[in-house]
Write a structure and sequence with these properties.
Bound molecules: flavin-adenine dinucleotide
Radius of gyration: 24 Å
Low-confidence stretches: 498-511
Helix content: 25-40%
Mean pLDDT: 93
Structural class: alpha/beta
Strand order of the largest sheet: 3-2-1-7-19
């Protein structure tokens, strides 16, 4: 076996929190042959695309940021998308990532060449890059979902999704229809209500909402964070445990769910005097089953005379109106879709082909089985950031991303040291992890009977991590070589952009 260290050619896809984190940490660990592909024109992911009015994080920014890149200048506890976007741009600049990034490069597919043990990564521009390792970080909330509503194509007004906000469009004097009452809608409805003539909010299921209690950081506080970083670290630490505590309810603690429900019901009672509206905003499922939301201005917005909450289902969209199942027709000049994202089709629409010609979309049809959301057995040397079963209902995704990236860096360190061509997750390990994850999810609040974007159409939950983030951190803190098989070494590395002639047995899609 060739044990000389070598520098694998790494392609990272995506430049949200995940891709930026992976690039920084891989470079810190001494990996230098890195190309980052990003379909858009800038870094930022979620925070570049979601610039709708009122868009903000719902985990405090001190925690919803990298542990290795603290920012003393957050303006408020829950800051807006503009600050998070600026933070990601600044961080990418500070760590010198821009020269590595190819903007406007949309990856359309990847194929593992088994004989050469390399990935061929294809872009929409027709380019093929050869990589030893691919780190995919294309995000789970990066493809807006618009429901197929009868007649939508006949609508003659303006319509757009919240993640694709039409800032050139003036809503002044308009009747605006908002479809959806999820995390984005409850942020932008209070912002557009004063601008439009009237807003109809079409709700399928009400969310549980708790007060956000946002506040601005004072100049003294910010000066303290700047001069004494340990003070901000202490706030981060406390915030982390406050949020981690919420896991008790989500993971099956009945008492915690009841306490949360009572608090949220009290908030409804205090906010909404009208019993009919109160009933309409009160969910009939356990808090946490759908994503928990926080807002101080959602209920006040619904109380406005120029805002109506419509709970009847949408039957049909007409040229300038929306008709609901009760036969009522309401005029609409603009439709804004606050309908979320295609969150359960991981890596779609990319065509990812692994060992034996297995396509990822079909391999995961009956369950997106992975080991800790980071690796899957038919796809050697493909590492995932925010892969299946790693999303959270209660804490910062950035914490999970950092844990995953630590694991991936350790895996590549092992790859480099061992001289192996590729690491392939053992199927037995994958089966064990996936079975365990699914079993544990059965006892959580997410399996308590509501429909949510966490679940696939068949009710399977391939989205969420079923335990605490502490446990995730613990299980990813060390790379375990025993979970992987090693490929035999292959001939010396060739140029990155020209496809290498396959060594050993010829490539065939059937393997
Ligand atoms: C409005 C909103 C608010 C949120 N608030 C919070 C919060 O408060 N706390 C929290 O923990 N989480 C929050 N989230 C979840 C959030 O998505 C994650 O926290 C995190 O930003 C995900 O980072 P990511 O890098 O995995 O994905 P993304 O940020 O989605 O980045 C993916 C990147 O990949 C690129 N890409 C996608 N496909 C391709 C392709 N085929 N080729 C090339 N490039 C591609 C995209 O353009 C994008 O830049 C929020 C999400 C939304 C939408």
């Amino acid at each position: 076996m060739n044990t000389a260290p070598r520098d694998p050619r790494i392609v990272i896809v995506g430049t949200g929190f995940g891709g930026v984190c992976a690039a920084i940490q891989l470079r810190r660990a001494g990996f230098s042959d890195i190309v980052i592909l990003e379909r858009a024109g800038d870094v930022g992911g979620t925070w570049r695309d979601n610039d709708y009015p009122g868009c903000a994080c719902d985990v405090p920014a001190v925690l919803y940021s990298f542990s290795f890149a603290p920012n003393a200048d957050w303006s408020s506890v829950y800051c807006g998308h503009d600050e998070l976007y600026a933070y990601l741009r600044r961080t990418a600049d500070r760590y010198g990532l821009r020269p590595l990034i190819r903007f406007g490069s949309e990856v359309t597919g990847m194929r593992f060449d088994e004989a050469a043990a390399v990935w061929e990564v294809s872009t929409a521009a027709g380019e093929t890059l050869v990589a030893d390792v691919v780190v995919n970080s294309t995000g789970t909330l990066s493809r807006p979902a618009v429901p197929r509503l009868p007649g939508l194509e006949d609508f003659e007004g303006t319509s757009f999704h919240s993640a694709d906000w039409d800032h050139g469009h003036d809503m002044g004097g308009e009747r605006v229809a908002v479809i959806g009452t999820g995390a984005s809608a409850i942020q932008f409805v209070p912002e557009i209500a004063p601008l439009a003539d009237h807003v109809d909010v079409y709700q399928r299921t009400p969310p549980w909402v708790m007060p956000r209690a946002n506040r601005r950081y004072g100049t003294r506080e910010r000066a303290l964070f700047r001069r004494l970083p340990a003070a901000q670290r202490a706030v981060r630490w406390k915030t982390y445990w406050d949020f981690e505590w919420l896991a008790r309810g989500f993971l099956g603690g009945r008492r915690a769910v009841d306490v949360y429900r009572r608090g949220a019901e009290r908030y409804i009672e205090e906010s909404i005097p009208d019993p009919v509206l109160r009933r309409a905003v009160t969910p009939d499922y356990d808090p946490g089953c759908k994503r928990r939301l926080i807002s101080d201005d959602w209920y006040p917005a619904l109380l406005r005379d120029d805002v109506d909450l419509v709970t009847a289902g949408i039957r049909e969209i007409r040229a300038r109106s929306i008709v609901t199942s009760d036969g009522v027709e309401r005029p609409a000049d603009t439709i804004v879709f606050g309908t979320g994202f295609a969150a359960t089709d991981f890596l779609a629409p990319m065509k990812v082909v692994g060992v034996g010609g297995v396509e990822l979309s079909s391999a995961w049809r009956a369950g997106a089985a992975t080991h800790l959301g980071v690796a899957a057995s038919d796809f050697p040397n493909l590492f995932l950031v925010m892969g299946p079963n790693t999303a959270l209902g209660h804490n910062s995704i950035v914490f999970m991303i950092e844990a995953q990236v630590r694991y991936i860096v350790a895996a590549l360190g092992h790859l480099r040291r061992s001289g192996a061509s590729a690491l392939q997750l053992k199927r037995s390990v994958q089966d064990r992890t996936y079975t365990q994850v699914q079993k544990r999810l059965g006892g959580t609040v997410w399996a308590s009977g509501c429909s949510s974007w966490y679940l696939k159409q068949d009710g399977r939950n391939d989205s969420l991590w079923p335990a605490t983030t502490v446990e995730y951190w613990w299980r990813t803190r060390r790379f375990s070589p025993k979970a992987f098989n090693e490929y035999e070494p292959r001939p010396p590395l060739g140029p990155r952009t020209a496809k290498e002639p396959a060594a050993g047995r010829p490539h065939s899609p059937e393997g």
